Backbone:
């Protein structure tokens, strides 16, 4: 009887496909885990100490919804220096996921179309549903570059938002300056809100990161500390964009998250000045190692940033390959968790060197079984 209480929108949201994989792998003993979408290193000590100090100093109540002044000032100064947009304002969000939810719920009316690129980050589709929008995906196979003309042809009078992620999860693709510029100009030409998810911007290995905000001053940017500083559980992100949009997002944050966790914001203020270049260099080495090991056995595109490879299964579907990997005590994620296609699987190289070596060995043996 109580099943009738459930809102229709919830029946359009599937449980996380990644969680299903973990359920499938529940009986694995000490698996070789290349599935985790978060850094393998701990939060730096100085940031943890800043959190402890904030708690001890009694900074445990709500903060202003837009964030504490020291952190907000650091973000705003950086944004102003990088873009020089007179109307661009920043605020602190309850993680990047919170920022994405606020942006979509502030922009999307029921029936509005939201376009994202396939493969996509798992949250995009479901947050669009939550906001009442209609999700449309643009296929980017085989090399995951942005197909501008395909995107142009998909735009209708109902198109309200384009979601963009570079470096991308799950592909690791880093969009080139030409791709980003064309996307930014297309969104401006059609008066479409462009949301740029830049949570992995620190992890670019082969070319410099480029934000569409450089070419379109109405771009809404989402970023945070989760991946760069191994603060996934701390729920501190930030957003910047046109002031009239940001004010609506702050208003919605007041009535949802209230604010990002207050003591965590003081720790994030410490994190803002923390040098992560050694972590970035380490992940580049891990990327190079794994790609060198696998490239003669698998078709690999993207992998220019973040800490993922989205690899084509050498035989069978992506799901079939992953099931076989689990039988070999290797935990990876099937590509259909992130895509309408079931041809690939995602590997995360945010792992120890020993884990990467064991994982590569299993993957190569499996590829040779075809």
Residues:
């Amino acid at each position: 009887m109580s099943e009738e209480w459930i809102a229709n929108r919830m029946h359009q949201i599937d449980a996380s496909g990644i969680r299903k994989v973990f359920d499938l792998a529940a009986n694995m003993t000490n698996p070789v885990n290349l599935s985790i979408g978060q850094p393998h290193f701990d939060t730096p000590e100085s940031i943890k100490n800043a959190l402890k100090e904030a708690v001890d100093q009694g900074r445990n109540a709500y903060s202003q919804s837009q964030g504490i002044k020291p952190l907000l000032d650091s973000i705003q100064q950086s944004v102003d220096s990088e873009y020089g947009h007179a109307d661009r304002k920043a605020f602190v969000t309850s993680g990047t996921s919170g920022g994405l939810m606020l942006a979509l719920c502030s922009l999307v009316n029921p029936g509005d179309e939201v376009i994202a690129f396939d493969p996509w980050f798992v949250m995009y589709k479901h947050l669009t549903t939550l906001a009442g929008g209609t999700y449309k995906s643009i296929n980017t196979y085989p090399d995951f570059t942005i197909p501008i003309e395909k995107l142009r042809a998909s735009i209708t009078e109902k198109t309200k938002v384009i979601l963009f992620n570079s470096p991308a999860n799950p592909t690791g693709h880093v969009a080139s300056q030409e791709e980003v510029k064309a996307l930014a100009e297309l969104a401006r030409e059609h008066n479409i809100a462009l949301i740029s998810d830049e949570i992995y911007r620190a992890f670019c290995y082969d070319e410099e990161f480029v934000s569409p905000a450089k070419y379109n001053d109405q771009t809404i940017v989402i970023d945070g500390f989760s991946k760069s500083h191994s603060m996934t559980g701390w729920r501190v992100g930030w957003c910047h964009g046109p002031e009239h949009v940001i004010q609506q997002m702050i208003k919605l944050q007041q009535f949802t998250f209230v604010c990002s966790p207050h003591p965590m914001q003081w720790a994030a203020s410490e994190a803002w000045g923390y040098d992560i270049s050694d972590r970035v260099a380490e992940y580049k080495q891990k990327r190079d190692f794994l790609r060198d090991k696998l490239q003669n056995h698998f078709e690999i595109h993207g992998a220019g940033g973040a800490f993922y490879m989205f690899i084509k299964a050498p035989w069978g579907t992506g799901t079939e390959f992953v099931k076989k990997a689990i039988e070999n005590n290797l935990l990876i994620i099937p590509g259909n968790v992130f895509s309408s296609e079931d041809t690939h699987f995602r590997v995360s190289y945010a792992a120890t060197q020993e884990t990467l070596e064991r994982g590569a060995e299993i993957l190569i043996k499996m590829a040779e079984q075809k």
Summary: The two ends are 50 Å apart (CA to CA). The longest strand covers residues 159-165. The CA atoms of residues 75 and 81 lie 10 Å apart.
